[in-house]
Specification:
It is a single chain. The chain is of the alpha+beta class. The chain has 8 helices and 4 strands. The chain has helices spanning about 15-40, 45-70, 85-115, 120-145, 150-180, 185-210, 220-230, 265-280, and strands at about 5, 235-245, 250-260, 285-290. A 4-stranded mixed β-sheet has the order 1-4-3-2, with helices on one face. A hairpin with a 5-residue loop joins strand 2 (about 235-245) and strand 3 (about 250-260). The longest helix is centred in the middle third of the chain and has 30 residues, at about 150-180.
């Protein structure tokens, strides 16, 4: 008869310190939207008004990522046995989509403006954009430390860093416009920046979509894990191996190990769980032992 054993390592959830980062980021960005919309309306600048609308999507992106980190920390219950961990994956995906849509609309508007360049009040635009660099730069810095280990945080970080870059481009375009009087500089700068951001965001979109469909996380090579499990003492075969992300920071594994010499005991499972955690970052392994190979409908590749 098969024997099941389940163990977990320590789960890494987004630290509660991020609550402060999200709160500060949201407040700063709402302030910037109000300032930008006011000056855009005052000097009749469509560019500033459009950017204020775009920055409002950033506030939505930050709220989304924050809600997801809170949801991911909810304890599992009888209806959601993994808790709400997947919220962080879905938020990263939604954040990437929001950013791609926002950049798409920015590129569309910039191309239209390239055909009919309009004069801008360079000084005011530069001042407002410089404030934007400051706000978005500070917000991005709040998420910088953990953006490599958690793609939900990376989504928030990329959103803010992208906007800091847009604002920096607007400052540069405003300065060049004051110097040269070339009205086409503003839309051309927007096009270049938009393309750079779309290229950098596509990686986040691909990675989060992959995880949303239970893909093996990028940090793990399935063949390496399979070989490692097969090399454990007493193991003659490995099958039905599945590895997926339950959240942007937690990884689950299920596997059947064929062990003809009989059940290995709890010490074996504890060592395997600890090693899977330290070597591969797998936090939630479930191992099934079979004395002889069972036939199953569910076959892993």
């Amino acid at each position: 008869m098969p024997h099941n054993h389940h163990a977990h390592g320590d789960h890494h959830h987004a630290p509660t310190a991020f609550a402060r980062a999200f709160a500060i980021g949201i407040l700063l960005n709402i302030s910037f939207v109000i300032v930008e919309a006011f000056y855009g309306w005052r000097i009749n600048s469509l560019a500033l008004l459009a950017d204020a609308g775009h920055n409002l999507s950033d506030v939505a992106g930050l709220v989304l990522a924050w809600v997801a980190t809170i949801a991911a920390q909810r304890r599992p219950d009888r209806r959601h046995t993994y808790g709400w961990q997947r919220a962080s994956i879905l938020a990263a995906l939604a954040n990437a989509l929001l950013l791609l849509i926002a950049m798409g609309s920015l590129l569309w508007e910039a191309i239209a403006r390239l055909h009919t360049p309009t004069p801008i009040e360079g000084g005011v635009v530069m001042a407002v954009a410089a404030f934007g660099v400051l706000v978005n730069g500070i917000t991005a810095m709040l998420f910088m430390s953990d953006q490599k280990s958690d793609i939900n945080i990376r989504g928030a970080y990329l959103h803010m860093a992208a906007d800091a870059l847009v604002s920096l481009g607007v400052v540069a375009a405003g300065a060049l416009y004051l110097w040269t009087g070339w009205a086409w500089l503003d839309p051309l700068t927007s096009i270049v920046i938009g393309i750079v951001i779309v290229v950098s965001t596509f990686g986040l979109f691909r990675q989060s979509l992959h995880l949303a469909f239970d893909g093996v996380p990028d940090s793990i090579d399935l063949a390496t894990v399979e070989t490692w499990l097969g090399a454990r003492p007493g193991v003659s075969g490995v099958h039905d191996l599945h590895i997926w992300g339950t959240s942007t920071t937690d990884i689950a594994l299920t596997a059947h190990l064929v062990m003809p010499n009989g059940h290995p005991g709890d010490a074996f499972f504890n060592h395997v769980a600890d090693d899977l955690h330290t070597k591969f970052g797998i936090t939630h392994p479930t191992i099934q032992i079979e004395i002889e190979r069972q036939s199953h409908n569910c076959e892993a590749p």
